[in-house]
Design goal:
five-stranded antiparallel sheet; single chain; binds alpha-D-glucopyranose; alpha/beta; eight-stranded parallel sheet; globular; 18 strands; 14 helices
């Protein structure tokens, strides 16, 4: 691939705890991932993004990093991570890792030192008096330490926020980036990127935050073809575009698309706005349907209200999974046809639904405890993947899995789906293969096929048509190369998408 591989890449997100378990302890690990790299190469993605793999007490699924230069022992070793990077590269897969600059774990050497020694507290956000900020997981954002001072944690108390006014913090992260780039990592996903810089009255999207990413870009540019991907949840597209200026990040996740309801007008607007915004800075858009923080797409799209908001998660809302599944198939063809990059969250290619009925006592997400058990949290999209066999653990590992798997996932295993031509897995495989040849980075032109239909032609000549209306619509001329569901003669049924060549 060229040095702009990332502009049109399909990137598969691995949540290591739940991907595949190589040593049979019920928790996914690097051995499990290494064994399944050929599956990912076959699937047809270009890169793999791993959520944090560092030593961590796992108070927030690894987003509480105790040591940025090592691997969590439950997952493997640093040496094994290097082997994994090399094996991925041999298969033509790039590796993107997660770096968490807003906060560390309270078990990190720096925070432990700060607790012992008041003169070492300037790396974090210690104050004599807390303000009224609330944690994103619920409850106050400040916790008092033994000698009476308070520290800030925008997330869980086990995740103390760094003080980015301190040059030592900048230096530390430059070193961390080089540590991983030196080991062959191709990209960095930047966690909670808009939150790092704070004033006494605000913590989101302060102008000074851009200095951090400008300097990170300079570090990335010391190497060949390395990229920065921002996790930037901002409603204002103009503000978001500032992170994607030529001397900052390469790309960012498109949360507008993820949050958008399954509605033609809303989607048309989000797509248009995304393309316009990215054009102003020359960055490629990305198209994201799900990740480890949001309810599974099959479940979301089967609800009466198909929109998503982090503060309105619609836990347990009634869902029609058959309808959600049909829409998720159509949405996959839409996301993969649009210009730019696309993300696939593990299990999305298997059409997994959200697991709504995890017993409360087994829930692990801090959202659940911090919200006083009012928000179920994110465990339902993090259930270990079903690979093969008839019953749990479905080839995930050997014994009980860290979160229980449903009894009715037999037909959803990768093995069962590989053998079924009409499966979600085979739809993803075919689409990703066609996408590599004809889609990805580039341009598109809208076609007008009525208010309920999204239709556009890509620069390669491939046309994507998605019918979001209640009744079938006539297809434009062309040869169907892929469809998300059965057609009705020359008509495209409701909640169905096709790719056509002229
Ligand atoms: C990001 C991660 C999420 C994590 C949070 C705090 O939003 O995606 O999983 O809990 O940051 O690090």
């Amino acid at each position: 691939m060229s040095d702009t591989w990332w502009r049109g890449a399909a990137i598969y997100q691995v949540y290591p705890r739940s991907f595949a378990d190589g040593n049979g302890d019920g928790v996914g690990d690097l051995a499990g991932l290494r064994a399944r790299l050929p599956y990912l190469a076959d699937l047809g993605v270009n890169a793999v993004w791993l959520t944090p793999w560092y030593p961590s007490p796992l108070a927030d699924g690894g987003y509480d990093v105790a040591d940025y230069r090592d691997i969590e022992p439950v997952f493997g070793t640093l040496e094994e991570a290097e082997t994994l990077i090399a094996e991925a590269h041999e298969l033509g897969l790039k590796i993107i890792i997660d770096v968490v600059p807003n906060h560390s774990s309270d078990q990190s050497a720096w925070f432990q030192e700060a607790l012992r020694d008041r003169s070492k507290r300037d790396r974090f956000w210690f104050r004599d008096e807390p303000n009224d900020w609330q944690s994103i997981f619920g409850g106050p954002a400040w916790t008092q330490v033994e000698d009476g001072q308070w520290y800030l944690h925008l997330f869980a108390p086990e995740q103390p926020d760094f003080n980015w006014d301190n040059p030592e913090v900048h230096q530390e992260f430059h070193d961390v980036l080089r540590f991983w780039f030196d080991r062959g990592v191709d990209g960095i996903r930047i966690d909670s990127a808009a939150l790092c810089v704070k004033s006494d009255t605000a913590f989101e999207d302060l102008d000074e935050v851009h200095d951090i990413y400008r300097s990170w870009r300079r570090v990335a540019d010391e190497y060949d073809e390395r990229i920065l991907v921002g996790e930037v949840w901002l409603p204002d597209q103009e503000r978001l575009s500032r992170y994607l200026r030529q001397d900052e990040m390469h790309t960012a996740f498109n949360f507008d698309f993820l949050s958008c309801p399954w509605d033609p007008a809303a989607l048309r607007q989000v797509i248009g706005r995304t393309l316009d915004m990215h054009a102003t800075v020359g960055a490629p858009p990305t198209w994201v349907l799900s990740n480890h923080d949001v309810a599974r797409v099959v479940t979301r799209y089967g609800r009466a209200d198909t929109s998503w908001a982090n503060n309105d998660r619609k836990d347990g809302a009634e869902t029609n999974l058959e309808l959600g599944y049909r829409r998720a198939r159509a949405a996959a063809l839409l996301a993969m046809a649009l210009p730019g990059g696309v993300y696939v969250y593990q299990g999305e290619e298997l059409g997994l639904p959200e697991v709504d009925d995890i017993p409360d006592e087994l829930r692990q997400d801090p959202m659940w405890t911090r919200s006083g058990h009012t928000v179920k949290g994110r465990d339902g999209c993090r259930v270990p993947l079903p690979w093969s066999g008839e019953e749990p653990p479905y080839g995930f590992g050997a014994g009980d899995t860290w979160l229980p798997q449903p009894e009715d996932w037999r037909k959803l295993t990768a093995e069962a789906q590989a053998a079924d031509l009409g499966s979600m897995l085979n739809l993803y495989r075919t689409a990703l293969r066609l996408r590599r040849e004809q889609l990805g980075d580039g341009t598109m032109e809208w076609l007008d096929l009525g208010a309920n239909v999204l239709a556009f032609t890509r620069d390669s000549g491939l046309t994507c048509v998605v019918n979001l209306g209640p009744s079938a619509v006539e297809l434009p001329p062309g040869e169907v190369v892929l469809s998300s569901g059965p057609l009705e003669g020359d008509h495209l049924p409701s909640d169905t998408a096709v790719w056509l060549t002229s």
